[in-house]
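Researcher: Please translate sequence to structure tokens.
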Amino acid sequence: MVTAEKRWYVKSNEESTVDAALFPEAHVPADAHPRWERQRMVIQFRGSDIDNDPFDDETGIPLDYWPKKVYQQLCEDIDHVFPRQQRTALFVLLVSGTMARITRWDRSGTIFSDAFDFVENPVAMRDILWGFSLLSSEGQGLDPTAVLVEPGTEEYKTMDELARERPTDLALAEGTPVPDQAGDAGEPVFGYVRMMFAKSLRSPFWPRWKLSVPTTGGCKVYLVGMPITLSPGIIGRGTRGYVAVDWETKRFVWLKDTWRPNSPDATPEGDMLKALQDAHVRHVPVLECHGDLDQDALTSRYLYTSRGLRTDRSAGTKRRYGTDESPIEDTRYRFLRHYRLVVRDVYLRLERFTCGKQFVSLIRDAVLAHADAYNSPLRLLHRDISSGNIMIRPTIETQASGSRQVVWRGVLTDWELAKSLHDNGQDSQTRRQIERTGTLPFISAYALDHPLEPMKVEDELEAFFHVLLFFGVRYLKNNAPDVQRFVHFIFLSYETNWGMGGCGRGKSNMMRTGIVPAYGALRLKFLNGAENEQSPFNVLIGKALEWFRARYELVDNPGLRKRLEGAKSGEVEAPCISQVAKISNHTAFLDLFDELLAKEWPTGDKTKDQLDEDDEAQDVVAQLLLRAAPQVAAQQDQGRLSQLSGNGSGDGNEKATGVVGDACDERPTKRRAT
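Model: Translation complete:
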């Protein structure tokens, strides 16, 4: 065990009191730095005040009055270790005065022992520390499929060599001519990819790793540095995205490390991508390899059974709402399994587009991917259309003249929540999880107000519309006097509906009136660069909104719907019928894109992100882009600590809880590229 009086924190670069940690004997730090990548057990010391103990032995629930400072300190320690190491779990010893308890954290929650007085019972403390020292590295929570890359090794030197800029690296700009031979071994390498990889190696406080990914008949090895993207929090899927190097071919790829739901109903994302590739779906990620690592988050197995909670693998059914036959399932406790996925290309964030026409073209590619998947024998709906799941893939295409040049294509990513229409029978409609799929700003108004109904193609196309409007008002020149207010009103507000976040007034009114309000009675207009003329983007938004408005006219008029359902073709005339038909499939939507992309567009219509000056709004948007719509409106106001009820005792003296972790330090960006 090593204690220190000083500790460096990444976020503040300030000295702060440190408690203690257990290290392997060969890697005890000789300086004041905590060496997060080497710690095996975290130890926290607190005063004897009861407020310093975060857990309640009677209920197994985190205390309501747990001080924010105590919570933040615990999160800082754990949230520094988890991202920097490759772990399945972390043991934390909490000491408050003469009382102590041992806790085990993984991605599904934390298990903790009863508190004991180690002065009166020193044998208990001895047994904990001695027993922990006898565990294997895997038993102490380390991932056996990951190996630390040490300085001076062949792998370390290879990573440094591949990070160096080369004159053959391709420029990023669309239209850049590409010579016949470029890059390593004749394969073109984009300069931005190498730069991203080099950036991931710069920090001396982030270790490098050699990760194994299962393949058919074995595994492949990849080298990674600091993650480019990192999901916030301790509890949850813990997704990390890396620009990785294939150790065998020395190619750059994208590696995703996550904890996926371990359920027979949850299809691994790699299987979905393989099916999309076999169905020749365009503009989707190209799969390299993927697989489960045979590592499960164990906390869910320690849940109580005395309060109607179940401990079998259908743990998504632990607490039923309403009657015993209620179809809504509580999925706040999950069985999660460690999973890795590798795809061929490294993408750019959608906001890297350079002008409005290019932005529309990128969204058009994503809609085409959705159309291919929907119209293929797979009959897939994506179910999480969002700005974070539409990426830019710079690629090389041969032109009609025979020359090759860089072209930017939109890619629809993250298909793990996709569901086939073949599965949308009565069973799938009556066994809906209470945790709705989707990302709040982009979920259709209808889906928000009808959370238990299966997603429809109309909902998915509306989600694309919201991506267009959301990024358009942020990055394209327009007449909105207060973009921050607009974003909050249209995209970030919601109402409580059956205990879930229903559609907010702003989005609902917009979809039902067909009017996009810039402010008050002022209608939103997009401007044509410096000339302040209207942009073709207005036509796209206006026509699409007219189609969606017609849908809600039918939704809000049950009498008209009833007459239409009972009438023969042509017997009942309603102007909205032809409009609604345009969003029953992708044809009209894609034709609208093609029609407008054939027109002349301005080149100076992009501006800086108009939310930049509002740090709070930016933070809210970033969080909402990372999670599904909230279950209960009040949960948003709980702040950093979300107390989950319904816990009980497991075997022995161990208890389980679902404390929701939060990011407590400066992190890599929360989206997939630079």
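Researcher: Any highlights?
Model: Confidence is low (pLDDT under 50) at residues 5-17, 304-331, 425-434, 625-674.
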